[in-house]
């Protein structure tokens, strides 16, 4: 057995007015709880250091920059990384990345229990739009503030397993899981900020949103025989509600743990990576069963094209 | 609104001893019920004319041939096609196909309400194995009796919609839905024969099998904003149990109708194809959101390869 005691560290809302320091203090408190529970891996949400700022339309680049990290760890976020190293806990942390050469990504990093940063992922599937949209009940401007990720979907060896990352909307795209599945992934970590109401269809509320979230995560886990740990920033941020529903899902697609609140909350599960083996060697033994000669459109064509009648 | 009143025509078990004529009589009775319910589309199971013969190990080619159709319709199956035409019902029907040039496929065809055969699909994802397996509780010899389908995943214009087909194990593979999604599919029809116990893990019984079935069908529907109609051959065939759980799933991934029995049973739902539009134009607008530059492994690599440490 290769067990990783894994903590999903859901975070409640972060208001615009809260400082990085306030947030990092909360994250350290969650990390202490993870340590007390015996965890060696902690998964934080997407954009964990700030409010979900893409809901705000901004035109001033200097204002936009205040939501991004120019370096990680910075003076303000270093105490989190120090504490994780002291605890011997590897971390997934999401943040807004401003590169030294002027690029902007929705990013996550993976650290080893030794504290070393061993992996970086940049969100590939950016939802939303880039200009102010008068048709929506609220804005979702990820395509305005971020470039699509340029690192693909790599995997990393850590804590005896093969680890992968993605972020929020990536989880709705089966390509995300499959590209990692084709590299033998055994645990996919992801953070998310998901509005509790569809900005383009007000009748689609939190129950529907949680249903789609679970459906996407559970099917991705099952169809690639991998653990998936999905962690929310939840609750009401400056009047805008986000779903909770953080999940630890096993390689059979079953929910092993699920959050109950919309606040800071810890889920812990001992994830046995050897449970991935059965699926990977039988029904999802890709080498025996996949037929790539019929999958061409998936990489040839971006959008849908209806064939002529 | 483009509504297709659709009948999922679940079939109970077919024993080895039952004749084609007996089976066709049952199918005609189901078709009559579909007509009475106002349906213009009827979906039958995989291998609808016979027992699920791949559970039997056979070495004699002449014996194998008895389970295949050399022509469709044949003298024995023609009454079904005649009745469908009389009723003005288009059909999906699964059967074992023996081509005139010596090939063997697990096939389905689509007819128009006029009776014309307008589409053929051959199962791409064959589960199971090709030689007698002493490690299994029972055999699943699809790889022995069938070649993988050679027609890809086409779609067809019929009844004002864009229709696709797949068969049984295809539904567990997100590539199946996505290739059709990239052609704008609005309704995917599939039949299945799914053992109620995993032949390689006896503890995985009907509840787990139904869970995986629903998860695969519902996620495929949601992630491609398409209707999916999934129809079982169910119940105990010569001592071997098959799950039921026939489903009509909407483009939101929600179950609109589900079978309650393991016998011949009809589900009817009026499927509004225009409900596909919202998903296809927003969260799953592939042209805006897919990033094919990061999907390369899906078509480059058949099996999983773990990168070096």
Give the ordered list of helices and strands of chain A: EHEHHEEEHEEHEHEEEEEEHHH
Q: Distance N terminus to C terminus of chain A?
A: 55 Å
Quickly count the helices of chain A: 9
Largest sheet of chain A: 6 strands, mixed
Helix content of chain A: 25-40%
Report the structural category of chain A: alpha/beta
**Oligomeric organization of the protein chains:** homodimer
Mean pLDDT of chain A: 97
Sequence of strands across the biggest β-sheet of chain A = 5-4-3-2-1-14
* Total count of strands of chain A: 14
Principal-axes geometry of chain A comes out as globular
Largest interface, C-beta closer than 8 angstroms, per-chain residues: A-B, 65 and 65 residues
Strand content of chain A: 25-35%
**What is the CA-based Rg of chain A, rounded?**
19 Å
Which regions of chain A have little confidence, pLDDT < 50, spanning 5+ residues? none
InterPro entries (chains A, B): Aliph_Amidase/BUP, C-N_Hydrolase, C-N_Hydrolase_sf
Protein name (chains A, B): N-carbamoyl-D-amino-acid hydrolase
Domain CN hydrolase (chains A, B): 4-275
GO molecular function (chains A, B): hydrolase activity
């Amino acid at each position: 057995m290769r067990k990783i005691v894994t903590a999903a560290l859901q975070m409640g809302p972060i208001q615009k007015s809260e400082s990085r320091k306030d947030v990092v203090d909360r994250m350290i408190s969650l990390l202490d709880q993870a340590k007390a529970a015996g965890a060696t891996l902690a998964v934080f949400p997407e954009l964990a250091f700030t409010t979900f700022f893409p809901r705000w339309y901004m035109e001033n680049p200097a204002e936009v920059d205040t939501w991004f990290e120019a370096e990680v760890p910075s003076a303000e976020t270093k105490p989190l990384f120090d504490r994780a190293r002291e605890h011997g806990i590897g971390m997934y942390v999401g943040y807004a990345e401003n590169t030294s050469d002027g690029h902007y990504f929705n990013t996550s990093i993976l650290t080893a229990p030794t504290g070393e940063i061993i992996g970086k992922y940049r969100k590939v599937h950016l939802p939303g739009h880039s200009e102010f949209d008068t048709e929506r009940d609220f804005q979702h401007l990820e395509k305005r503030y971020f470039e699509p990720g340029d690192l693909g979907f790599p995997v990393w060896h850590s804590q005896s397993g093969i680890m992968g990352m993605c972020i929020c909307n990536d989880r709705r795209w089966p390509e995300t899981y499959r590209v990692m599945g084709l590299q033998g992934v055994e645990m996919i970590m992801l953070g998310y900020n998901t509005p509790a109401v569809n900005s383009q269809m007000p009748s689609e509320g939190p129950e529907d949103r949680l249903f789609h979230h679970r459906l996407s995560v559970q099917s991705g886990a099952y169809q690639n025989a991998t653990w998936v740990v999905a962690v929310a920033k939840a609750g009401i941020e400056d009047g805008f509600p986000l779903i909770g529903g953080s999940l630890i899902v096993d390689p059979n697609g079953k929910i092993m743990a699920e959050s109950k609140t919309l606040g800071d909350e810890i889920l812990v599960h001992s994830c046995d990576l050897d449970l991935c083996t059965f699926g990977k060697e039988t029904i999802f033994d890709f080498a025996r069963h996949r037929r790539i000669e019929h999958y061409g459109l998936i990489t040839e064509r971006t959008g849908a094209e209806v064939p002529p009648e």
